[in-house]
Amino acid sequence: MNTDNVSNQGQEASSLSSKMKLILLLAFPAVVENFFQTFIGFVDVYFVSKIGLAEVSAIGATNALLAIYFAVFMAVGVAANVRVANALGAKKVERARHIAQQALILSVLFGIFTGVVTLFFARPLLALMGLEEQVLDIGETYFRIVAIPSVFMSLMFVLSANLRGVGDTRSPMKVSIVINIVHAALGYVLIFGLWVFPEMGVAGAAWATVGSRMLGTLLLLYYIQRSEVLAFRRDYWAVDWGHQKELAKLGSPAAGEVLIMRAGQIVYFGFIVSLGTSVFAAHQIAGNVEVISYMAGYGFATAVTILAGQQIGAGKIEEASSYVKIGAWMAVGLMGVLGTLLFFLGGWAGTLFSEDQEVIAEIGNALKVSGAFQPFLAALLTLTGAYQAANNTKFPMYLTAAGMWAIRTTLVYFLGVYLGWGLTGVWVAIGIDIVFRAGVLAAKFVKGTWMNLEKEPEVESQCHPQSTKETMSACANNY
């Protein structure tokens, strides 16, 4: 199938079965991609757990800070994904191409900025989490290696988002599979040492991650250039402030939502650290296991964002709502099954990472709690994707702020620390926040007040003077 034509199929699909097939067509590659993307972190934690729990805690703390960088990169990706999908739904191909390239300019700038921040402030940022000196030293090494070349992380987020915006979820999936095979092999060799390669420990894990991301960026650029819609045009590299304003307006609340989430996460991570390094390590391990189910939900959220975005761009509001409902229920069903597996097999999963019976028990308890909340997490992820497709990124941001600070962070301290429930209390607090936010998004969706359908802003430089006469004509017809 030509994935550049998915938008046409999305507009033609009408029956329940055809819609489910189309959702699966887009969701399955996204699920596989997300699974392999997650596998990078899983492999790092698995290999590093063989060195020690301090190393696991160091990577976990670093990833909490990297998640703030990811929030910014992801926001640009969300904005690009939605605007590209909206443009294709309205059959404005050149507009889609132009926005996609403008998003890449923004991604490079943010990637360079976060790299510079890491260069000068890596240790002070990690110190904010109250880490023990040994963990702080290890974390600083890992953080610097992985995050100074942040531009590759940023480009991967936005290049993948552009491809998904045109309905191509297969290419990012293929890239994800390749780079994870490379990452796993490099990780083993560089962490433990093999042949002429010395044992590098945590630094080896970091260099393996950087190498795989550089390869991923090159492969995604290859697929972009093969796309009929996204192949680069030289005149579209000039900064277009109209499109940059569009991306910022839609992406800023999405970034704000994740930044609020990550800021709260850093605070309650501090509460977990106060329970002990082994407890924090158990929390990180449980999170790396749970994320397998989490990524399945993200796959369906991706499909919902693409299809709802295209239908909204075409002015078919009822069709957009239909895709959201079907996609959400499919995600709930799948994550319900995965949640059951987490509930019953969580303790066994813990044995893969540690021989400490106390740590294994903590992991098992956390995953039992997590398993019970997976259907609600599925609803939260897919509905958030729907709101983004409807250009409504502000409400999820406000809701995340309320859930994170009024519910999650407060309850993590109250249940986990004050009442002494430990890691089990932490995961109960997380689950309550998930149920709250999923319920509010669902209620607003049912009422039909989930969209923000503002008129598309006029873009001053829709067609550039240096374009050829033929290109100008095509631009005027399709922009």
UniProtKB/TrEMBL annotation:
Signal peptide stretch: none
One protein family per Pfam: MatE
Compartment(s) of residence: Cell membrane
Full protein name: Multidrug-efflux transporter
Keywords: Antiport, Cell membrane, Ion transport, Membrane, Transmembrane, Transmembrane helix, Transport
PANTHER family with a match to the protein in the record: FMN_FAD EXPORTER YEEO-RELATED, MULTIDRUG RESISTANCE PROTEIN NORM-RELATED
Topology versus the membrane: Multi-pass membrane protein
Transmembrane segments: 22-47, 59-82, 103-122, 142-163, 175-197, 203-224, 266-286, 292-314, 326-349, 369-390
